[in-house]
Amino acid sequence: MGRLGLSKLVDDMLTRPSAIRSMMKFGDERNIRAMGLDPKDVISFGGGWVGHHAPERLREIYAEIGNDVAAFHQTGAYPSIPGVPACRRELARMDEVLYGVKATEKNVIVGQSSTELTHDLMRTILNCGDDVILLDPTYVNYYGQLVFAVTNWRLCKERGHIERLVPDAEVAYVRSFDPISWSFMPDVDKAIGEMEQAFKLHKPGAVLIASPDNPTGQIVPQKFMEAVMELCQKNNTYFVIDYAYKEQCFVDDPPEYFSWSPAEFENLVLIYSASKFFRSLGRRLGWVVASEKLVEGMETMLTYSLLSADNMHQMAMAQYLEETIDNGNLRKYFNDINESYMNAARITIDSIDEYIGLRRTEPQGALYVAMEVGEDGEKWAEETLRNTGVIFIPGFGFGESLRNGVRVSYGPLVEKTDKISEGLKRVGEYVKGRKSG
Fold it and tell me: Prior bond to 79 cis, omega within 30?
């Protein structure tokens, strides 16, 4: 009897170098102990998550639902596939009140998370073999999501009877970060020209961009986004914007495209996550804003992939938004947490400048600073962890442009800012000692 196997796609992905697996090993307690470190002494700048507390009123609503026999019973029922109508309505209203995005309940579909929705979205809008354009650097998970969603792997035989799987779809990258000047899109016109060339070469089915950006903490310039939208419209290409960090935005005037909506651009798709907005990392909930036609298509996809998102999370979110949009507490909550992250960002860059003295980005949003280390980031991060007990994420996983850098995340430490200074001071002492040695 033959050995039970996995799909050729999964087998191939298991044998490929994985940026995510490499990243996860740095924070693995077994790895930390193997280095002779005490996990209690480790300070991590590795986590891509928020550390602030969820809104107190949202916690109270969950408690009220749990204490109400009828309401708790209702949480166990199947919600409608595209989402609880009240939740969809309030999510659309939130974006209109905060940013002027024109959308209705019919433009919103709710899923288990933005991760799940990104996969299902790509399965809905793309055919196997369609190319997709990303920025370099960008969120590490996009590549794997796209491979599993739209790649039709075929078996090729090479000289010597070697068989290997090759994809017939391609993920193309347009460089947005200059490692020489260590800056994000220093020449916007040049970046636009590279995007135009990528369109000619790949004829993409979609362009996927996150703003604010992970891993650099930068907001993509308005001029670049307008050029991408124009290219997408001319080529019947979907323009997908990941707004996971839309509420972690530090500039005084958010870019105009924050208010773009499917009512203006039929090819526009917006992805949102409750994880960063409401510190709901484990209370999984995401949503997509798109044209009514695309929402209907995604409903068909969700019928077979997810069926429906969690009912309790949607019920609680709908009630919370209905109350706090009207009484102004939602805006106050976002203002308060945004100030907290701006403070954490300031402490981070001030500590890098004072203790380490390496080049880094100036955060405009999200949770991150990209810091140059002058050598392979993975090697540097491993040696730094071993000698200081401080965790950073190597830059290569986000894109070739960050190979000689690391991502510094202050998100998990937003309510423990003394740890930011302590960790970066440790690193500074190690770096200076390393140079003198």
Answer: no
Q: Is the bond preceding 179 in cis, omega lying within 30 degrees of 0?
A: no
pLDDT tens-digit map of 307-366: 999 999 999 999 999 999 999 999 999 999 999 999 999 999 999 999 999 999 999 999
* Beta pairing partners, 405: 372
What are the tokens at 32?
């930390």
- CATH fold of 56-327 reads Aspartate Aminotransferase; domain 2 (3.40.640)
Residue holding tokens 């510190």? 279
Residue 336's H or E segment, with its range, is helix 329-351
**CA distance linking residue 382 with residue 65, whole number of Å:** 46
- Please name every residue paired with 206 in a beta bridge, in sequence order, or none if there are none: 132, 238
- Give me the count of residues in the chain: 437
The 3-state DSSP class for residue 320 equals helix
Q: Which residue, 355, 350, 360, is CA-closest to 426? A: 355
Strands (E), 243-361: 268-273, 286-289
Query: Is the CA virtual torsion 396, 398, 402, 407 positive or negative?
Result: negative
pLDDT tens string 301-313? 999 999 999 999 9
CATH class of 8-54+331-436: alpha beta
The Cα–Cα gap between 334 and 276 comes to: 11
Angle at 127 between CA 122 and CA 131, to 5 degrees: 75
What angle (nearest 5°) sits at the alpha carbon of residue 325, between those of residues 320 and 328?
Answer: 115
Domain boundaries, the chain: 8-54+331-436, 56-327
What are the residues facing 73 on neighbouring strands? none
**E-assigned strands of 120-166?**
132-136, 154-158, 162-166
Q: Are 412 and 281 in contact (CB under 8 A)?
A: no
- DSSP 3-state assignment of 162? strand
CA 154 – CA 177 distance, rounded (Å): 33
- pTM higher than the cut 0.90: yes
Task: Take residue 437 and report the two structure tokens written for it.
Answer: 């040695």
- The CA distance from 32 to 45, in Å, is 14
Are 94 and 330 in contact by the 8 Å Cβ rule? The answer is: yes
